[in-house]
Amino acid sequence: MDRFIRRGGWRFPLAMSAVMLALLGIGMALGVMLVPRGPWYRGGGFANSLISWDGLWYLDVAQHGYSWNPSTGMLPGHYQNPDFYPLYPLIERLVMDILRNSAPAVFVATGTAFGIASVFAFERLARRLLAPDAARGATAIYAFWPASVYFTMGYPTGLINLCALAALSAYVERRYWRPALWCGIGTAAAPTLVFLAAGLCLDQGLAWLSGTRDVREIPRLIGFGLLSVSGLIGFIIFQWIALHDPLAFIKAQDAWGTSPPALVRLDRLFDIPRYFHLQTQAFQFFRHVHATRNGRMTPALRRDIQYNEQFMLNGISFVLVLAGLMAAFRRVRPLAVPLAALAGLIGYLWFIVATNQNMTATPRLLYPAIAVFLGLGALTARSRLLLAALLSLLGALTVMNGVAAASGYFLI
User: Fold this and answer.
1) Is the peptide bond before 334 cis (omega within 30 degrees of 0)?
2) Most confident of 264-268, 289-293, 388-392
């Protein structure tokens, strides 16, 4: 095996992509054949049942464009689509027009292709920044990460990661305008790339402060910052023209639940005991699963199991993110790479954990924090047992997510 993965730059990421798809396939097969249909099962064929949750909203934008009714758009439960960023729906629309086909399998294949491409891009970056063993371990951890299920669900997850990897790779190569451009493209796909852009801009600012502090460099720094969020700026301008409201994408989020005041969020951000309390919900998963052994499975219990499985997944992922990020600050250079991941983590804490959503969607929203996987690869490089244990854990969680995706359970 070692001899196989040392050959060439494409064989190992290809193998990891294949294993990733195999894990998801096993989970989905189990979900279809053995697991009772969940409350959000859509039917209409296998591919159609995979496109769910946010994937349906992206597809709605691709097929029908944006619409905004300001009189109802901020009312709870009156969901509208301006808060879904435009780049991925544009790509979906382009693929649909080129192939003259709008079958669900087309959109599943599009997202999966971006996901596989991101594995190759990650392996290339890891080989540049880490020793060979650590790079291979990091690539496997990246591919086995349980949020890989979203590659198959109509989400822009693979595209977002690919933009993040392209930006970081260019930054490592000191091509400073190219990473700003890739960040700008990525901010048209998701708000998570705004945080990566913030990390790179911070690194640029720190370099300027510790260097010449030449005021003639300030226009370049401003230009870098504007280009790095140009996709978001373009989206705001588009909504101003088309929807007559440049902030419709923010206002539309109120339909899913309003955010608490800033002071409340600030208090929650530094309320360390609250983080531990959030994770106590994860242990309910095992209690509910144990209850099924006594033949007491009910619709309510099935609902509790699926929610608490996600709490458990979020908690495990959060711990791994912290461990990987701390290792990255020690072992990954340039510092901009872990700094960008830290910016992503801070953004997640502020906009998700400190709100009423608590700790949700951790694996997916922190997937673009690329340094986390580099750090975990470096951390496990000296212990094959630790790496095997971690990959086994992530593989099991990936299979569980595959089950949930195929059988219609809570997965967001």
Assistant:
1) yes
2) 388-392
Where do we find the tokens 């096993």?
26
More confident residue, 321 or 302: 321
Q: Which tokens sit at 74?
A: 């901020």
d(CA 3, CA 202): 41
State the Cα–Cα distance between residues 299 and 311, nearest whole angstrom: 19
Locus of tokens 């219990």: 301
3-class SS of residue 221: helix
Kindly write down the DSSP assignment for every residue of 124-145, as one continuous string. Answer: HHHHHHS-HHHHHHHHHHHHH-
Other residues' Cβ atoms within 10 Å of the Cβ of residue 290: 9
Handedness of CA 325, 263, 200, 212 (dihedral sign): negative
Q: Global pTM? A: 0.93
Residue type, 327: A
Q: Are 230 and 184 a contacting pair, CB within 8 Å? A: yes
* Gap between the Cα atoms of 269 and 353, Å rounded: 7
d(CA 306, CA 310): 7
- Each residue of 200-226: pLDDT tens digit? 999 999 999 998 788 989 999 999 999
Which residues does 135 contact at the CB level (< 8 Å), separation at least 6?
A: 123, 126, 127, 129, 377
**CA count, 13 A, side-chain hemisphere, 293:** 5
Rg of the chain in Å (alpha carbons) = 21
For CA atoms 134, 136, 142, 145, the dihedral sign is negative
Nearest to 165 by CA among 130, 199, 117: 117
What value does the mean pLDDT of the chain take? Answer: 91
Q: How far is CA 364 from CA 43, 104, 313, 350, in A?
A: 24, 22, 11, 16
CB 309 within 8 A of CB 146: no
Q: How far is CA 378 from the centre of its chain?
A: 21
